[in-house]
Amino acid sequence: MNATIRALAAVVALAAAIPSSAGCAVPAATGGAEADTITTKYEVSGVRVIQRITDRNDIVSVRLYLLGGSRQLKHGTEGIEALLMRTSQIERADALAAAGAHSILEVGRDWTVTGFQTLRRNVTSAWNAWVVGVTAPELSGAAVGQARGEMLSEARRRYGDPDARVETLAWQNLFRNHPYRFDPYGTVQSISGLWGTQLRRYARDQMVKSRMLLVVVGNVAQDSVRQLVAGTLGKLPAGTYTWTLPPPVPARPNTWAFEDRSLPTNYILGYIVGPPPTNPEYFAFEVATNLLSGRLHDVIRTQHSLSYAVYASFQEDAIPTAAVYATSADPAKVFSLMIDQVEWLQSLSQVPGWALNHYLDQFVLDQLTQNLTNDAQAQALARAELYFGDYRLADQYVAGLRHVHPKDIRKVAIDYMRAMQLGYLGNTSLMSFR
Amino acid sequence: MTASMLDPPLHRTPLRMVMLVPLCAAALVLPSTPAGAQQASRGTRDTTLANGLEVKVLEDHSAPLATVLVTARTGAFTQRPDEAGLSHVYEHMLFRTYKLDPSKFDEDAAELKAVYNGVTNEDNVSYYMLLPSENTDKAIAQLAYLVTRVHFRDKDLDEELPVILNELARDAADPDGRLARKEDRVLWGDSWYLKDPGGDSTSLKHVTLTRLEEYSKRYYVPNNAALFVTGDVDAEDVFHAAADHFGGWHRGNDPFAGDTLPPMTPLAASQVVVVTSEAPEATVRIEFQGPGLDRDPTAAEAMARLVDILNDPGSRFRRDMVGNGPFRELECDFDKGRSAGTVVFVGTADLARVTEAARTLSDTLNDLTAYLAGGDSASGRVRNLEDLDLALTLEEGATLAPYLAKLWGRGEFLDLEHPYDSNQSKAADVLGAARKYLEGRPRVIGVTVPGPLAEQVRTKIQAGEGRR
Fold first, then answer.
1. Residues of chain A with CATH 3.30.830.10
2. What DSSP state is assigned to residue B260?
3. Looking at the DSSP assignment, which residues form a beta bridge with residue A102?
4. Are residues B225 and B288 both part of a single domain?
């Protein structure tokens, strides 16, 4: 059995077991789980590294997490880290392509990820092509201009795209007066005001080892990784950054952010804030969100034919949310049915065991599917390390879900699904917004 | 950048593929038996049941997962002129009418711990389930029931049509989606119905129960279908299960007997399309009719290589268009098709530079020689990235069935035995494809701009094209 198969088999075995738990969001890392002997965590010259060695294929995924996300930002600097890394990406694009690698750049509210995917034979050349963009970005005027242009273009297009626009409306509504109100992608106004001097200062102050977590998955020897890191990232300043989970979002009653726009259909998106990853109810909230999603689909699409796209989606962020979404020509009726389904969930005297098991079975499938690739495994390892405090919990996620008891579903529905912060885009005369 | 939570799933960069060159390309007679059944065996294990159903298995034992998929060779390309969207409606209706209960397919899939979907393409329609591999046999049984025991009622059609219309409305609400659809319609003219799997509110009015039943009898026959299973399965077990569950499906008449591939209407002259958008930013999109896999297979492969060369982040084309040119971003794509493909160049530009961007790109596409210079060495560099793309796709072997089915529908296959030698296009082929299908050829130039600018931009772009 090769390493990856073993890891996946461990997930399945864990999913089949239903251990009891109390007071812990996830099972203890060593609590009876098969030891993850293929993954190690170590430090090279002050850089934290999580590495999984797998010989399943020749792909190597390298992801460098720059921690902080929205909390790195303030008015006027929204998008600065994204612009810095986009500029580096442009400057290194030719060298990375020549090395046979695809670059990775992901911008989020918790962190920014830069890195690459390549074949094993190209790892060293790809690393050398990529890492200069982190340790010594050139930040030429032409590259900064091109990166700024691309980001401005994306910011403007987010206004025109109905899905992106309703997401912005709902998100800003949810996070008003919270650090997450600062958009890590930047706004047209903030991006327009960012120049090379600021980027150079940001790179000097913020490209520090304490903000970094490097995750490598693929068939590469640990010594090789150590050598690559020591000669490059390891020479950066240490810095004093400490990663923590963000502050909670204060509870508020339902509020709407809406915008009138003439469209062929209307968009509703509501966010419900769930418990943080350190809370024992985290997994129950995820299961409740998925039960709600199935119910919304059945009632609104199948029974009433009111929408093609209607669902509730669990957003696995440091501040987890359920995103409740629908498009419809009859938004008032759809919204009323959405609320009915939340109330249905809250009034359930008991979720039938078979129904719960059905959803849990699908989580097992999701986990297996989502961890098929080396890059997905790298993401799961990083999330487990940063949200739960231990990368080894990545392979025990399903076990955490298996802890959920039917009575927990009703409880989290009552405790957390009391209010939604909503966005609406479309014909506003069709809605009351009360 | 991180995808939006509301974004549709991302697609992998297209793989290098091998086409099944028709034995008699000039005749363009649709195959009376599935095209290239023998060739398609490379990389998969295949058999054909007595009723004509092809069964193809790709074993991948890296995770206890499997995808089971049944597909029929139909889609936009078999539609009549007034019934665009028929194949798509049929796909929705199969799920709704399964065991005469719209929730039943979902419930049965849940029993198997499966997720499922249906997809209507230009060249085929597929239904698939992704599930733990231990339930593969039952999934084959469920899909066999879905496609072979069809019973539609008027009530079902009445209930499903609003859902489909909301799906189309959602697509139309996105300005870029609207631009793409409008340009496609202009590009293909009278042949548009052969490229449009979705249809619209007008064409869907022509869909009746009687017509769906006729359609079912003609195209949903085992000798026009295939079963794909990918993942942690044993091919012999799949063959037995296929015979058990699909063996009773009665062979039908050859749906394409005597038919010829309808000719695609050529675009007579370049045209300009303007779509209004709320975004203070322009999209510029230029489309060409490209080579078809059946009609010009060598050029089709070369066109796939051409777009890879132009998309290379270090290419001179990108430098001139984006780094030093009027575009913020620019991507090229070649959407393959059996009778004809679509070559697309799509980018974004400041509103102040939209006309310049459209003209610069259109002019550049009239003389690509300089950008394709470097020939085989440029191809070599691109092939290094293509190797990576292939490895990334094969990494998800258990979920490859929908992709393999799409290739099957187009008469292509993925050559897993010689994956790195598949695209044999030479520099001369690439240049030849550029000259035959792009340089100086009629095109559709489209832009999205805010309403007040629409006429002014249209006039300027038309004037620029008119001078050529």
1. 38-235, 255-430
2. B
3. A117
4. no
State the smallest CA–CA distance between residue A407 and chain B in angstroms: 22
Q: Looking at the structure, do residues B287 and B235 belong to the same domain, yes or no? A: no
> Between β-strands A310-315 and B282-290, what pairing exists: parallel, antiparallel or unpaired?
unpaired
- Is A315 in Cβ contact with B5 (below 8 Å)? yes
Structural domain tally of chain B? 2
The CATH number given to whatever domain includes residue B195 is 3.30.830.10
Amino acid at position A324, single letter: V
- Alpha-carbon distance B97 to nearest alpha carbon in chain A (angstroms): 11
Mutate to test the interface with B, among A153, A169, A299 (most CBs of B within 10 A): A153
Which of these three, B230, B246, B262, is where a domain ends?
B246
Let me know whether B206 and B281 are in one domain: no
Alpha helices (H) in A371-405, listed in sequence order: 374-383, 397-402
| CATH match for A255-430 among 3.40.50.2000, 3.30.830.10, 3.40.190.150, 3.40.50.10350 | 3.30.830.10
The dihedral built from the CA positions of residue B230, B248, B240 and B418, taken in this order, carries a sign that is: negative
In a domain, B401, yes or no: yes
- The CB-side HSE value for A13 (13 A sphere, CA atoms) comes to 11
Any A CB within 8 A of B169 CB = yes
Q: How far apart are the first and last CA of chain B?
A: 39
* Interchain pair A100, B388: CB under 8 A: yes
Which pLDDT tens digits describe chain B residue by residue (468 residues)? 223 333 322 222 222 233 333 322 233 333 333 333 333 334 789 999 999 999 999 999 988 999 999 999 999 999 988 889 999 999 999 999 999 999 899 889 988 989 999 999 999 999 999 999 999 999 999 999 999 999 999 899 999 999 999 999 998 999 999 999 999 999 999 999 999 998 888 888 889 999 999 999 999 999 999 999 999 999 999 999 999 999 999 999 999 998 777 889 999 999 999 999 988 899 999 999 999 998 899 999 999 989 988 998 888 899 899 988 999 999 999 999 888 999 999 999 999 999 999 999 999 999 998 888 765 566 667 777 878 888 898 898 899 999 999 999 998 877 776 555 556 678 889 999 999 999 999 999 999 999 999 999 999 999 887 766
Strands of the sheet with A255-260, listed across from one edge? A255-260, A421-426, A266-273, A321-328, A310-315
How large is the C-alpha radius of gyration of chain A?
A: 23
Cβ-defined contact of A365 to B61 (cutoff 8 Å): no
Token pair, residue B89, equals 């409606």
In terms of domains, do B195 and B313 share one? Answer: no
Give the model confidence (pLDDT) of A185-211 as tens digits. 999 999 999 999 999 999 999 999 999
Handedness of CA B25, B26, B28, B34 (dihedral sign): negative
Chosen domain end from B246, B279, B305: B246
CB–CB of A99/A203 below 8 Å? no
CB-based contact (8 Å) between B448 and chain A? yes
Q: Is B2 on the interface with A (CB under 8 A)?
A: yes
Contacts of A390 (CB under 8 A, 6+ apart): A29, A384
Counting beta carbons within 10 angstroms of the beta carbon of residue A248, is it exposed (0 to 12), middle (13 to 18) or buried (19 or more)? exposed
Query: Which chain A residues touch B357 with a CB distance below 8 Å?
Result: none
B189 and B319 share one domain: no
Which chain B residue lies closest to A147 (C-alpha atoms)?
A: B328
Element at B231 (helix H, strand E): strand B225-231
Do A53 and A223 meet the contact criterion of CB atoms below 8 Å apart?
no
Class of domain A38-235: alpha beta
Beta bridge partners of A323: A271, A313
Domain that includes residue B38, residue range = 29-246
Query: Is A94 in contact with B314 (Cβ distance < 8 A)?
Result: yes
> Using an 8 Å Cβ cutoff, are A62 and A115 in contact?
yes
**Is residue B408 in a domain?**
yes
